[in-house]
Specification:
CATH superfamily of the largest domain: Jelly Rolls
Number of domains: 2
Strand content: 15-25%
Radius of gyration: 18 Å
Shape: globular
Strand order of the largest sheet: 1-8-3-6
Order of helices and strands: HHEEEEEEHEEHHHHHH
Oligomer: single chain
CATH topology of the largest domain: Jelly Rolls
Helix content: 40-55%
């Protein structure tokens, strides 16, 4: 079975015909590390399906400080969803951390298919449910866990995170400095 079809089938059962409809509004790209897929202020039109590599989502303060909101690892969907829905400029930047293979899906054509194909509409709902659950889990971590426990939770979710993602990006994601992360890692290694 096509691995992309298998991934979609992890949400709902997708027929070959539906898969063909989705392929028609999708394009494949190899993207080098350091590429902005969505820039600050861009009005996006794509949903992305990451099949290899790592992408980060971040925002920048007026002083120029970056805060990582999310990391995306294969296989998953990502997008500047609020900007897509509202057709407004994105407040987030989506940037490849490593070389990536992605599929770009035209969001507006996809939404058009949702109106005429119940299975695609159900797929959209299931993907959004998954995104919301991840967002809710991240929010609970930020509110209820200290930096060490947030780091341990990240390591549990992505066991090899320290080899995949630069430490300064991990520190930003945790809301701490790289020095603080180094101290946390040292204490964990000593225990």
């Amino acid at each position: 079975m096509n691995p992309n079809l298998a991934f979609l089938n992890s949400f709902i059962s997708v027929s070959e015909g539906t898969f063909t409809e989705l392929e028609a509004i999708t394009s494949f790209r190899r993207v080098p590390a350091g590429t902005e897929l969505v820039g600050l202020g861009d009005v996006p039109s794509k949903i992305y399906m990451l099949v290899s590599g790592i992408v980060r989502c971040y925002l920048t303060t007026e002083s120029g400080k970056e805060f990582n909101k999310s990391f995306y690892l294969p296989t998953c969907f990502f997008a500047s969803l609020t900007a897509l829905i509202r057709k407004k400029p994105s407040i987030f930047v989506f940037e490849t951390i490593s070389d990536c293979k992605i599929y770009e899906i035209d969001y507006y054509k996809f939404r058009g298919l949702c109106k005429i194909d119940d299975s695609i509409n159900t797929l959209y709902s299931k993907v959004l449910e998954g995104v919301y659950m991840k967002y809710e889990s991240r929010l609970v971590e930020l509110i209820s866990l200290d930096a060490k426990d947030r780091y341990l939770a990240l390591r549990e979710q992505t066991p090899n995170v320290d080899e995949l993602i630069p430490q300064y990006h991990i520190a930003s994601y945790l809301g701490i400095t790289a020095v603080q992360l180094s101290r946390i890692r040292k204490k964990i290694d000593e225990s």
